[in-house]
Protein backbone atom coordinates (compact mmCIF):
# COMPACT_ATOMS: atom_id res chain seq x y z
CA UNK A 1 0.00 0.00 0.00
CA UNK A 2 2.86 2.34 0.87
CA UNK A 3 4.49 1.63 -2.48
CA UNK A 4 1.27 2.54 -4.30
CA UNK A 5 1.03 5.84 -2.39
CA UNK A 6 4.69 6.53 -3.16
CA UNK A 7 4.06 5.86 -6.85
CA UNK A 8 1.13 8.28 -6.90
CA UNK A 9 3.28 10.92 -5.19
CA UNK A 10 5.99 10.57 -7.82
CA UNK A 11 3.41 10.80 -10.63
CA UNK A 12 1.82 13.89 -9.09
CA UNK A 13 5.22 15.55 -8.70
CA UNK A 14 6.10 14.77 -12.31
CA UNK A 15 2.72 16.14 -13.46
CA UNK A 16 3.16 19.39 -11.53
CA UNK A 17 6.73 19.81 -12.72
CA UNK A 18 5.71 19.11 -16.31
CA UNK A 19 2.87 21.64 -16.18
CA UNK A 20 5.11 24.25 -14.59
CA UNK A 21 7.82 23.81 -17.22
CA UNK A 22 5.33 24.26 -20.07
CA UNK A 23 2.97 26.81 -18.48
CA UNK A 24 4.31 29.88 -20.29
CA UNK A 25 4.57 28.04 -23.59
CA UNK A 26 1.03 26.68 -23.37
CA UNK A 27 -0.45 30.04 -22.36
CA UNK A 28 1.41 32.10 -24.96
CA UNK A 29 -0.65 32.37 -28.16
CA UNK A 30 1.79 32.66 -31.06
CA UNK A 31 -0.95 34.22 -33.18
CA UNK A 32 -1.50 37.17 -30.83
CA UNK A 33 1.49 39.55 -30.85
CA UNK A 34 2.43 41.30 -27.60
CA UNK A 35 3.96 44.25 -29.45
CA UNK A 36 2.74 45.96 -32.61
CA UNK A 37 4.99 47.74 -35.08
CA UNK A 38 4.59 51.50 -35.71
CA UNK A 39 3.27 51.04 -39.25
CA UNK A 40 0.26 49.04 -38.07
CA UNK A 41 -0.48 51.56 -35.33
CA UNK A 42 -0.07 54.53 -37.67
CA UNK A 43 -2.66 53.37 -40.19
CA UNK A 44 -5.27 52.88 -37.48
CA UNK A 45 -4.62 56.23 -35.83
CA UNK A 46 -4.90 58.09 -39.13
CA UNK A 47 -8.08 56.35 -40.23
CA UNK A 48 -9.85 56.61 -36.89
CA UNK A 49 -8.89 60.16 -35.98
CA UNK A 50 -9.63 61.65 -39.41
CA UNK A 51 -12.94 59.80 -39.67
CA UNK A 52 -13.82 61.12 -36.22
CA UNK A 53 -13.02 64.61 -37.46
CA UNK A 54 -15.39 64.15 -40.41
CA UNK A 55 -18.10 63.03 -38.00
CA UNK A 56 -17.55 66.04 -35.75
CA UNK A 57 -17.75 68.37 -38.74
CA UNK A 58 -21.03 66.80 -39.78
CA UNK A 59 -22.62 66.66 -36.34
CA UNK A 60 -21.69 70.10 -35.00
CA UNK A 61 -18.80 71.89 -36.74
CA UNK A 62 -20.68 72.78 -39.92
CA UNK A 63 -23.76 73.65 -37.86
CA UNK A 64 -22.29 76.00 -35.26
CA UNK A 65 -20.35 77.97 -37.88
CA UNK A 66 -23.43 78.04 -40.16
CA UNK A 67 -22.21 76.11 -43.17
CA UNK A 68 -25.22 73.84 -42.69
CA UNK A 69 -28.46 74.01 -40.70
CA UNK A 70 -30.99 71.46 -39.49
CA UNK A 71 -34.61 71.01 -40.46
CA UNK A 72 -35.37 68.22 -37.97
CA UNK A 73 -34.11 67.36 -34.48
CA UNK A 74 -32.73 70.87 -34.26
CA UNK A 75 -31.27 70.92 -30.73
CA UNK A 76 -27.67 71.29 -31.93
CA UNK A 77 -28.67 74.22 -34.12
CA UNK A 78 -30.43 75.92 -31.21
CA UNK A 79 -27.39 75.44 -28.92
CA UNK A 80 -29.12 72.98 -26.65
CA UNK A 81 -25.86 71.16 -26.15
CA UNK A 82 -25.29 68.53 -23.55
CA UNK A 83 -22.14 66.45 -23.45
CA UNK A 84 -20.26 66.35 -26.73
CA UNK A 85 -17.63 63.76 -26.02
CA UNK A 86 -16.61 62.81 -29.55
CA UNK A 87 -13.44 64.91 -29.60
CA UNK A 88 -12.47 63.89 -26.07
CA UNK A 89 -12.92 60.17 -26.73
CA UNK A 90 -11.24 60.34 -30.12
CA UNK A 91 -8.19 62.24 -28.89
CA UNK A 92 -7.53 60.20 -25.77
CA UNK A 93 -8.43 56.92 -27.47
CA UNK A 94 -6.08 57.54 -30.37
CA UNK A 95 -3.36 58.99 -28.15
CA UNK A 96 -2.79 55.57 -26.62
CA UNK A 97 -1.47 54.30 -29.93
CA UNK A 98 0.30 57.56 -30.74
CA UNK A 99 2.16 57.19 -27.45
CA UNK A 100 2.96 53.57 -28.33
CA UNK A 101 4.50 54.81 -31.60
CA UNK A 102 6.50 57.42 -29.68
CA UNK A 103 7.78 54.77 -27.24
CA UNK A 104 8.68 52.25 -29.96
CA UNK A 105 10.31 54.85 -32.16
CA UNK A 106 12.32 56.25 -29.26
CA UNK A 107 13.56 52.80 -28.25
CA UNK A 108 14.45 51.83 -31.82
CA UNK A 109 15.86 55.25 -32.75
CA UNK A 110 13.34 55.62 -35.56
CA UNK A 111 13.28 59.39 -35.89
CA UNK A 112 10.95 59.42 -38.86
CA UNK A 113 8.21 57.57 -37.01
CA UNK A 114 8.88 59.69 -33.94
CA UNK A 115 8.48 62.88 -35.96
CA UNK A 116 5.21 61.67 -37.48
CA UNK A 117 3.89 60.71 -34.05
CA UNK A 118 4.75 64.13 -32.62
CA UNK A 119 2.84 65.81 -35.45
CA UNK A 120 -0.20 63.65 -34.74
CA UNK A 121 0.10 64.24 -31.00
CA UNK A 122 0.17 67.99 -31.59
CA UNK A 123 -2.83 67.93 -33.90
CA UNK A 124 -4.90 65.74 -31.58
CA UNK A 125 -4.20 67.74 -28.45
CA UNK A 126 -4.78 71.03 -30.26
CA UNK A 127 -8.29 69.85 -31.16
CA UNK A 128 -9.02 68.77 -27.60
CA UNK A 129 -7.76 71.94 -25.93
CA UNK A 130 -9.48 74.18 -28.48
CA UNK A 131 -12.74 72.36 -27.81
CA UNK A 132 -12.55 72.12 -24.01
CA UNK A 133 -9.82 74.48 -22.78
CA UNK A 134 -7.64 73.11 -19.97
CA UNK A 135 -7.29 69.33 -20.37
CA UNK A 136 -5.04 66.46 -19.24
CA UNK A 137 -1.86 66.75 -21.32
CA UNK A 138 1.43 66.07 -19.55
CA UNK A 139 -0.01 63.12 -17.58
CA UNK A 140 -2.52 62.05 -20.22
CA UNK A 141 -0.71 58.93 -21.44
CA UNK A 142 0.95 57.81 -18.22
CA UNK A 143 -1.60 55.25 -17.02
CA UNK A 144 0.26 52.28 -18.48
CA UNK A 145 3.81 53.51 -17.99
CA UNK A 146 3.55 55.21 -14.58
CA UNK A 147 0.16 54.22 -13.18
CA UNK A 148 -1.29 57.73 -13.42
CA UNK A 149 -5.02 57.11 -13.64
CA UNK A 150 -6.18 60.57 -12.54
CA UNK A 151 -4.16 62.95 -14.73
CA UNK A 152 -3.89 66.62 -13.86
CA UNK A 153 -5.33 69.19 -16.23
CA UNK A 154 -2.69 71.43 -17.78
CA UNK A 155 -3.44 75.06 -18.59
CA UNK A 156 -4.12 75.77 -22.22
CA UNK A 157 -1.14 78.12 -22.25
CA UNK A 158 1.15 75.28 -21.17
CA UNK A 159 -0.45 72.90 -23.67
CA UNK A 160 0.21 75.26 -26.55
CA UNK A 161 3.81 75.65 -25.43
CA UNK A 162 4.11 71.86 -25.60
CA UNK A 163 2.40 71.64 -28.99
CA UNK A 164 4.71 74.25 -30.50
CA UNK A 165 7.78 72.54 -29.02
CA UNK A 166 6.72 69.14 -30.37
CA UNK A 167 6.06 70.51 -33.87
CA UNK A 168 9.47 72.16 -33.91
CA UNK A 169 11.09 68.93 -32.75
CA UNK A 170 9.17 66.95 -35.38
CA UNK A 171 10.57 69.18 -38.11
CA UNK A 172 14.08 68.60 -36.76
CA UNK A 173 13.66 64.82 -36.51
CA UNK A 174 12.02 63.97 -39.82
CA UNK A 175 14.54 62.75 -42.35
CA UNK A 176 17.31 62.08 -39.83
CA UNK A 177 16.95 58.28 -39.73
CA UNK A 178 16.80 55.60 -42.40
CA UNK A 179 13.58 53.70 -41.69
CA UNK A 180 10.96 53.92 -44.42
CA UNK A 181 7.55 55.13 -43.29
CA UNK A 182 4.87 52.47 -43.78
CA UNK A 183 1.23 52.47 -42.74
CA UNK A 184 0.97 56.09 -43.89
CA UNK A 185 -2.47 56.16 -45.50
CA UNK A 186 -2.45 59.98 -45.44
CA UNK A 187 0.65 60.75 -47.53
CA UNK A 188 1.38 57.35 -49.03
CA UNK A 189 4.45 56.48 -46.99
CA UNK A 190 7.95 55.90 -48.28
CA UNK A 191 10.73 58.44 -48.51
CA UNK A 192 8.59 61.00 -50.35
CA UNK A 193 6.13 61.26 -47.47
CA UNK A 194 8.77 62.59 -45.07
CA UNK A 195 8.86 65.94 -46.87
CA UNK A 196 5.08 66.20 -46.64
CA UNK A 197 5.07 65.42 -42.92
CA UNK A 198 7.66 68.18 -42.40
CA UNK A 199 5.44 70.59 -44.32
CA UNK A 200 2.46 69.59 -42.20
CA UNK A 201 4.46 70.07 -39.00
CA UNK A 202 5.41 73.63 -39.90
CA UNK A 203 2.00 74.48 -41.34
CA UNK A 204 0.34 73.30 -38.13
CA UNK A 205 2.85 75.39 -36.24
CA UNK A 206 1.68 78.47 -38.18
CA UNK A 207 -1.93 77.58 -37.29
CA UNK A 208 -1.02 77.19 -33.61
CA UNK A 209 0.92 80.46 -33.51
CA UNK A 210 -1.97 82.34 -35.07
CA UNK A 211 -4.38 80.69 -32.63
CA UNK A 212 -2.57 82.23 -29.67
CA UNK A 213 -1.65 85.48 -31.44
CA UNK A 214 -4.10 87.50 -29.35
CA UNK A 215 -2.30 86.36 -26.19
CA UNK A 216 1.34 86.27 -27.24
CA UNK A 217 3.63 88.15 -29.61
CA UNK A 218 4.15 85.45 -32.21
CA UNK A 219 5.63 87.56 -35.01
CA UNK A 220 9.24 86.49 -34.54
CA UNK A 221 8.33 82.79 -34.57
CA UNK A 222 6.18 83.18 -37.67
CA UNK A 223 8.88 85.15 -39.46
CA UNK A 224 11.47 82.49 -38.65
CA UNK A 225 9.32 79.90 -40.43
CA UNK A 226 8.45 81.89 -43.56
CA UNK A 227 11.95 83.33 -43.96
CA UNK A 228 13.67 79.94 -44.18
CA UNK A 229 11.62 77.54 -46.28
CA UNK A 230 14.60 75.21 -46.64
CA UNK A 231 14.74 74.59 -42.90
CA UNK A 232 11.04 75.03 -42.23
CA UNK A 233 9.14 73.88 -45.34
CA UNK A 234 5.40 74.57 -45.40
CA UNK A 235 2.59 73.56 -47.75
CA UNK A 236 3.21 75.07 -51.17
CA UNK A 237 0.40 73.60 -53.29
CA UNK A 238 -2.71 71.44 -53.10
CA UNK A 239 -0.44 68.44 -53.63
CA UNK A 240 0.74 69.03 -50.06
CA UNK A 241 -2.77 68.91 -48.55
CA UNK A 242 -3.17 66.67 -45.52
CA UNK A 243 -6.35 65.14 -46.94
CA UNK A 244 -7.24 61.47 -46.57
CA UNK A 245 -8.43 59.93 -49.84
CA UNK A 246 -11.14 57.33 -49.36
CA UNK A 247 -11.73 54.12 -51.28
CA UNK A 248 -14.48 53.28 -53.75
CA UNK A 249 -15.49 50.16 -51.82
CA UNK A 250 -16.36 49.47 -48.20
CA UNK A 251 -15.21 49.67 -45.47
CA UNK A 252 -12.99 52.67 -46.28
CA UNK A 253 -15.43 54.86 -48.17
CA UNK A 254 -16.38 58.45 -47.29
CA UNK A 255 -17.67 58.04 -43.70
CA UNK A 256 -21.10 59.53 -44.50
CA UNK A 257 -21.64 57.35 -47.55
CA UNK A 258 -23.45 54.69 -45.53
CA UNK A 259 -25.74 57.14 -43.72
CA UNK A 260 -29.50 56.66 -43.72
CA UNK A 261 -31.12 59.12 -46.08
CA UNK A 262 -33.46 60.38 -43.34
CA UNK A 263 -30.57 61.14 -41.00
CA UNK A 264 -28.50 62.72 -43.75
CA UNK A 265 -31.33 64.94 -44.96
CA UNK A 266 -31.87 66.46 -41.53
CA UNK A 267 -28.87 68.60 -42.47
CA UNK A 268 -29.32 71.18 -45.21
CA UNK A 269 -27.29 74.03 -46.66
CA UNK A 270 -27.39 77.08 -44.40
CA UNK A 271 -28.87 80.37 -45.49
CA UNK A 272 -25.63 82.01 -44.33
CA UNK A 273 -23.58 79.91 -46.75
CA UNK A 274 -25.98 80.04 -49.68
CA UNK A 275 -26.58 83.78 -49.43
CA UNK A 276 -22.89 84.66 -49.13
CA UNK A 277 -21.85 82.49 -52.05
CA UNK A 278 -24.80 83.55 -54.19
CA UNK A 279 -23.91 87.21 -53.66
CA UNK A 280 -20.41 86.48 -54.99
CA UNK A 281 -21.56 84.30 -57.87
CA UNK A 282 -19.19 81.78 -56.33
CA UNK A 283 -18.67 78.60 -58.37
CA UNK A 284 -18.31 76.52 -55.20
CA UNK A 285 -22.00 76.90 -54.31
CA UNK A 286 -23.14 73.82 -56.29
CA UNK A 287 -20.30 71.85 -54.69
CA UNK A 288 -21.64 72.58 -51.22
CA UNK A 289 -25.38 72.58 -51.97
CA UNK A 290 -27.86 71.10 -54.43
CA UNK A 291 -30.61 72.99 -56.24
CA UNK A 292 -34.00 72.79 -54.56
CA UNK A 293 -36.36 70.10 -55.83
CA UNK A 294 -39.28 72.51 -55.99
CA UNK A 295 -38.09 75.87 -57.34
CA UNK A 296 -40.23 79.00 -57.40
CA UNK A 297 -40.63 78.57 -61.17
CA UNK A 298 -40.60 75.25 -63.09
CA UNK A 299 -37.22 74.45 -64.58
CA UNK A 300 -35.42 77.18 -62.67
CA UNK A 301 -32.17 76.30 -60.86
CA UNK A 302 -32.40 77.72 -57.35
CA UNK A 303 -30.33 77.37 -54.23
CA UNK A 304 -32.12 78.15 -50.97
CA UNK A 305 -30.49 77.78 -47.58
CA UNK A 306 -32.43 77.33 -44.36
CA UNK A 307 -31.74 79.78 -41.50
CA UNK A 308 -29.89 78.37 -38.52
CA UNK A 309 -31.48 78.15 -35.12
CA UNK A 310 -35.12 77.65 -36.06
CA UNK A 311 -37.49 75.58 -33.95
CA UNK A 312 -38.66 72.20 -35.21
CA UNK A 313 -41.84 73.35 -36.92
CA UNK A 314 -40.54 76.49 -38.65
CA UNK A 315 -37.36 74.66 -39.71
CA UNK A 316 -39.29 71.80 -41.29
CA UNK A 317 -41.73 74.15 -43.01
CA UNK A 318 -39.25 76.76 -44.20
CA UNK A 319 -39.86 77.79 -47.83
CA UNK A 320 -42.67 75.30 -48.16
CA UNK A 321 -40.88 72.31 -46.68
CA UNK A 322 -37.85 70.10 -47.40
CA UNK A 323 -38.27 70.23 -51.19
CA UNK A 324 -37.89 73.99 -51.05
CA UNK A 325 -34.44 74.02 -49.38
CA UNK A 326 -31.09 72.84 -50.69
CA UNK A 327 -29.62 69.53 -49.65
CA UNK A 328 -25.94 69.24 -48.80
CA UNK A 329 -23.80 69.05 -51.94
CA UNK A 330 -23.53 65.83 -53.91
CA UNK A 331 -19.75 65.39 -53.31
CA UNK A 332 -20.51 64.84 -49.62
CA UNK A 333 -23.70 62.80 -50.01
CA UNK A 334 -24.66 59.30 -48.91
CA UNK A 335 -25.38 56.27 -51.09
CA UNK A 336 -29.16 56.67 -51.12
CA UNK A 337 -29.20 60.47 -51.08
CA UNK A 338 -29.52 60.91 -54.82
CA UNK A 339 -30.28 59.13 -58.02
CA UNK A 340 -28.03 58.05 -59.56
CA UNK A 341 -25.98 57.23 -56.48
CA UNK A 342 -23.12 59.61 -55.73
CA UNK A 343 -19.51 58.53 -56.17
CA UNK A 344 -18.42 57.02 -52.82
CA UNK A 345 -15.01 58.64 -52.50
CA UNK A 346 -15.20 62.19 -53.81
CA UNK A 347 -14.84 64.09 -50.53
CA UNK A 348 -11.65 63.91 -48.48
CA UNK A 349 -10.98 63.68 -44.77
CA UNK A 350 -9.34 67.05 -44.18
CA UNK A 351 -6.66 67.66 -41.59
CA UNK A 352 -5.14 70.81 -43.10
CA UNK A 353 -4.89 72.34 -46.57
CA UNK A 354 -2.62 74.64 -48.53
CA UNK A 355 -5.52 77.10 -48.87
CA UNK A 356 -5.77 77.45 -45.09
CA UNK A 357 -2.04 78.09 -44.82
CA UNK A 358 -2.29 80.88 -47.39
CA UNK A 359 -5.14 82.54 -45.54
CA UNK A 360 -3.21 82.34 -42.26
CA UNK A 361 -0.21 83.97 -43.91
CA UNK A 362 -2.43 86.65 -45.48
CA UNK A 363 -3.75 87.56 -42.05
CA UNK A 364 -0.28 87.50 -40.52
CA UNK A 365 1.10 89.73 -43.27
CA UNK A 366 -1.83 92.16 -43.11
CA UNK A 367 -1.24 92.48 -39.34
CA UNK A 368 2.52 92.91 -39.92
CA UNK A 369 3.30 89.81 -37.92
CA UNK A 370 5.53 88.77 -40.84
CA UNK A 371 7.38 90.83 -43.43
CA UNK A 372 7.76 88.14 -46.09
CA UNK A 373 5.41 88.10 -49.07
CA UNK A 374 2.29 90.03 -49.98
CA UNK A 375 -0.98 89.75 -48.05
CA UNK A 376 -2.92 90.10 -51.29
CA UNK A 377 -0.96 87.33 -52.97
CA UNK A 378 -1.46 84.97 -50.04
CA UNK A 379 -5.17 85.82 -50.01
CA UNK A 380 -5.69 85.23 -53.73
CA UNK A 381 -3.62 82.05 -53.57
CA UNK A 382 -5.95 80.77 -50.85
CA UNK A 383 -9.10 81.38 -52.88
CA UNK A 384 -7.66 79.85 -56.05
CA UNK A 385 -6.27 76.88 -54.17
CA UNK A 386 -9.65 76.02 -52.67
CA UNK A 387 -11.40 76.32 -56.03
CA UNK A 388 -8.69 74.27 -57.72
CA UNK A 389 -9.01 71.61 -55.01
CA UNK A 390 -12.70 71.14 -55.69
CA UNK A 391 -12.21 71.36 -59.45
CA UNK A 392 -9.80 68.44 -59.16
CA UNK A 393 -11.95 66.14 -57.03
CA UNK A 394 -15.51 66.75 -58.29
CA UNK A 395 -16.39 64.13 -60.96
CA UNK A 396 -17.22 65.38 -64.44
CA UNK A 397 -20.56 63.53 -64.34
CA UNK A 398 -21.77 65.89 -61.61
CA UNK A 399 -21.78 68.71 -64.15
CA UNK A 400 -20.36 71.24 -61.69
CA UNK A 401 -18.08 73.94 -63.11
CA UNK A 402 -15.82 75.28 -60.34
CA UNK A 403 -14.15 77.85 -62.59
CA UNK A 404 -14.81 81.42 -61.36
CA UNK A 405 -16.21 84.05 -63.71
CA UNK A 406 -13.86 86.55 -65.30
CA UNK A 407 -14.85 89.28 -62.85
CA UNK A 408 -14.93 87.15 -59.69
CA UNK A 409 -11.71 88.57 -58.23
CA UNK A 410 -12.44 92.17 -59.17
CA UNK A 411 -15.87 92.48 -57.57
CA UNK A 412 -15.85 94.73 -54.48
CA UNK A 413 -16.59 91.94 -51.99
CA UNK A 414 -13.58 89.91 -53.18
CA UNK A 415 -10.99 92.41 -54.47
CA UNK A 416 -8.25 93.02 -51.92
CA UNK A 417 -9.14 96.65 -51.26
CA UNK A 418 -10.37 98.74 -48.36
CA UNK A 419 -9.26 99.33 -44.80
CA UNK A 420 -7.19 96.84 -42.83
CA UNK A 421 -10.34 95.60 -41.09
CA UNK A 422 -12.16 95.19 -44.40
CA UNK A 423 -9.24 93.21 -45.79
CA UNK A 424 -9.17 91.00 -42.70
CA UNK A 425 -12.90 90.41 -43.11
CA UNK A 426 -12.36 89.29 -46.71
CA UNK A 427 -9.56 86.96 -45.64
CA UNK A 428 -11.66 85.53 -42.81
CA UNK A 429 -14.76 85.06 -44.95
CA UNK A 430 -12.89 83.25 -47.70
CA UNK A 431 -11.13 81.08 -45.13
CA UNK A 432 -14.53 80.27 -43.58
CA UNK A 433 -15.71 79.00 -46.97
CA UNK A 434 -12.54 76.94 -47.46
CA UNK A 435 -12.83 75.32 -44.00
CA UNK A 436 -16.16 73.64 -44.72
CA UNK A 437 -16.06 70.02 -43.52
CA UNK A 438 -12.70 70.51 -41.79
CA UNK A 439 -13.81 69.31 -38.39
CA UNK A 440 -14.23 72.13 -35.87
CA UNK A 441 -11.49 74.30 -37.34
CA UNK A 442 -13.85 76.97 -38.75
CA UNK A 443 -15.45 77.29 -35.29
CA UNK A 444 -12.10 77.56 -33.56
CA UNK A 445 -10.94 80.19 -36.03
CA UNK A 446 -14.18 82.19 -35.78
CA UNK A 447 -13.89 82.29 -32.00
CA UNK A 448 -10.48 83.92 -32.37
CA UNK A 449 -11.29 86.38 -35.14
CA UNK A 450 -15.05 86.93 -35.00
CA UNK A 451 -15.08 86.66 -38.81
CA UNK A 452 -17.50 86.20 -40.50
CA UNK A 453 -20.53 87.35 -38.53
CA UNK A 454 -22.37 84.41 -36.96
CA UNK A 455 -25.79 85.43 -35.65
CA UNK A 456 -27.68 83.02 -33.37
CA UNK A 457 -30.97 81.88 -34.87
CA UNK A 458 -34.31 83.29 -33.70
CA UNK A 459 -35.21 80.21 -31.67
CA UNK A 460 -31.80 79.67 -30.07
CA UNK A 461 -31.74 78.46 -26.47
CA UNK A 462 -28.52 80.14 -25.32
CA UNK A 463 -29.62 83.72 -24.76
CA UNK A 464 -28.45 84.82 -28.21
CA UNK A 465 -24.89 83.64 -27.62
CA UNK A 466 -22.90 81.35 -29.91
CA UNK A 467 -21.22 78.59 -27.85
CA UNK A 468 -17.47 78.96 -27.41
CA UNK A 469 -16.48 75.58 -25.96
CA UNK A 470 -17.63 72.07 -25.06
CA UNK A 471 -18.38 71.10 -21.48
CA UNK A 472 -16.18 68.42 -19.89
CA UNK A 473 -17.45 64.83 -20.07
CA UNK A 474 -19.55 63.92 -17.05
CA UNK A 475 -17.40 60.81 -16.59
CA UNK A 476 -14.58 63.10 -15.47
CA UNK A 477 -16.62 64.06 -12.40
CA UNK A 478 -16.66 60.43 -11.34
CA UNK A 479 -13.20 59.31 -12.46
CA UNK A 480 -11.07 62.45 -12.12
CA UNK A 481 -13.15 64.77 -9.97
CA UNK A 482 -10.43 66.64 -8.07
CA UNK A 483 -8.39 67.52 -11.14
CA UNK A 484 -11.46 68.50 -13.11
CA UNK A 485 -12.66 70.72 -10.26
CA UNK A 486 -9.26 72.43 -10.15
CA UNK A 487 -9.44 73.14 -13.88
CA UNK A 488 -12.97 74.55 -13.60
CA UNK A 489 -11.96 76.81 -10.71
CA UNK A 490 -9.05 78.11 -12.77
CA UNK A 491 -10.77 78.39 -16.15
CA UNK A 492 -14.33 79.32 -15.24
CA UNK A 493 -17.77 77.74 -15.09
CA UNK A 494 -18.00 74.49 -16.99
CA UNK A 495 -20.51 75.59 -19.60
CA UNK A 496 -20.61 76.35 -23.31
CA UNK A 497 -20.19 80.11 -22.77
CA UNK A 498 -16.88 80.12 -20.88
CA UNK A 499 -14.11 81.23 -23.22
CA UNK A 500 -10.84 79.31 -23.29
CA UNK A 501 -7.49 81.01 -22.57
CA UNK A 502 -6.63 82.12 -26.11
CA UNK A 503 -10.16 83.48 -26.57
CA UNK A 504 -10.26 85.65 -23.44
Automatic annotation (TrEMBL):
Q: Which PROSITE patterns match?
A: PROKAR_LIPOPROTEIN (PS51257)
Keyword Signal present in the record's keywords: the answer is yes
* TM ranges: none
Q: State whether keyword Lyase applies.
A: no
User: Which keywords appear in this protein's UniProt record, sorted alphabetically?
Assistant: Signal
Pfam families per the record? SusD-like_2 (PF12771)
| UniProt signal peptide | 1-21
What's the superkingdom here? Bacteria
* Name of the featured protein: SusD/RagB family nutrient-binding outer membrane lipoprotein
Origin species, per record, is Spirosoma montaniterrae
